[in-house]
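Appendix B, example 12.
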Amino acid sequence: MPDINNRFTGQGARELVDAISRGDDAYIAQALQLNPSAIRVQTIDLSTAPTNPVLVNFPFKSVYVASASDSSALVSMRPFSDSENNDYAPLRLKDSVGWDYSISRCFLTWTAQAGKTMTLVFFTDAKFTSGSFNTQVTSSLDGTSINDFSSVTVTADGTAKLIDSTHNVIEVFNEGPGDLWVGGSGVSAAAGAEKGYRLPAGYGKRYRNSGSLYYACLTAGTIFRYQTET
């Protein structure tokens, strides 16, 4: 590999950095002059299913589910066109989807979900990922020791069961086959009365919180693993 110290002269390095900075300055100046729509927010009433998929007719790079009535509220999105070239992607609370380049439009659909709403935030010129509004700060709360993964095979009845109560950080991964609901002591997987955060098979979640974490599941034989930091 070439020696990075010899790839640029001092003047060449300064010119390159200045050029990059001028690009940022030009983008800011353009934004001030044109006042572009950088963020669009749409709240959807999920009480009635649409007859046809709903068209979102503006370009965007990413979409984020900012809020929903609960974690089971579901909207499905298909980018570009409503054709079978693309499958519908499920969107639930706090999900985000982004692309390197702009999507010209998308289509949304959902089944009737009585009394539920969902708010989608579209970023027209930014690749947003869920959680990037928050500054990550490492502190003593993260713990000083990492424990081995533990595995749990579910005996299903849909009621809350304790995962762990002595941790600073806990990470849960659902191997499936059933959905796993995680949260506080009131978490529930009962059909129509789900409470908590839904983890489908193949998904995981990390909590930086020392509170007791519970799970609920309706599918016997579902396996999940968890790891704690203390």
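Residues 12 and 18 are 10 Å apart (CA to CA). The mean pLDDT is 79.
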